[in-house]
């Protein structure tokens, strides 16, 4: 952080700390995308996913959407891998997801999966990635950070929720996207990535443009979630419920928010000792809720780590 310095009239320099403003790019992104992150986290599609209520067809379509997004992003990263603002954060072995997603799509659709999926729902997102890759490559930093750091934060829990809800093989078929085989420590790698990003030679205006582009990336992701929600309303498919516990409505019956495990999990993740104890008691009383509550805590902790680590 860097203090604001004022030079009042009178000839003598007077330093007045008005506020501490983040100057590291990672801190600026964390602070500047909080609202967008909260909105994305509260999309119905995401909340249903975390509760293990997943329609198989929607999961397949979501995987296809990710394939087109990552294909575009990694294509542009490859084209710009020698760019001074891309080279320091170029980690194809550790991060790239296109091939993993292709294997997942083959699992769900068969060998001819390419003829069965469409990029229609992701066109604005994909077009924007290609646009910045061609005209303003430094903005790829925003797209790379938004996607990869999110995937590394809580991805293993999302994998377990999907695996159980969709009854996918324990050997990982259909879930390759969540497996970063080239990364041994997610926390350590995220620290490395942020440090590389913070070392990029960028002026204040460019950093602000990257933050703006990251918010735009969040918007594109929410657009995809909305499309999936709308498609889900037209699909006559029984929800693949993982049986992770009582519904939110049942738990909230009577209107006492303190009885809600999702609320307790969020408060516990914030460090409130009262709710840490309360969450532990709920886990003891409702063993079937363990996976759902663990998912909430892990994902919230993952998002917190995303901002603070």
Automatic annotation (TrEMBL):
Keywords on record: Heme, Iron, Membrane, Metal-binding, Oxidoreductase, Transmembrane, Transmembrane helix
EC class: oxidoreductase
Residue ranges of the TM segments: 291-308
Keyword Oxidoreductase: yes
EC number(s) on file: 1.14.14.18
Pfam families: Heme_oxygenase (PF01126)
One of the protein's GO biological processes: response to oxidative stress
GO molecular function, one term: heme oxygenase (decyclizing) activity
Family the entry assigns: Belongs to the heme oxygenase family.
UniProt-recorded name of the protein: heme oxygenase (biliverdin-producing)
Protein source organism: Seriola lalandi dorsalis
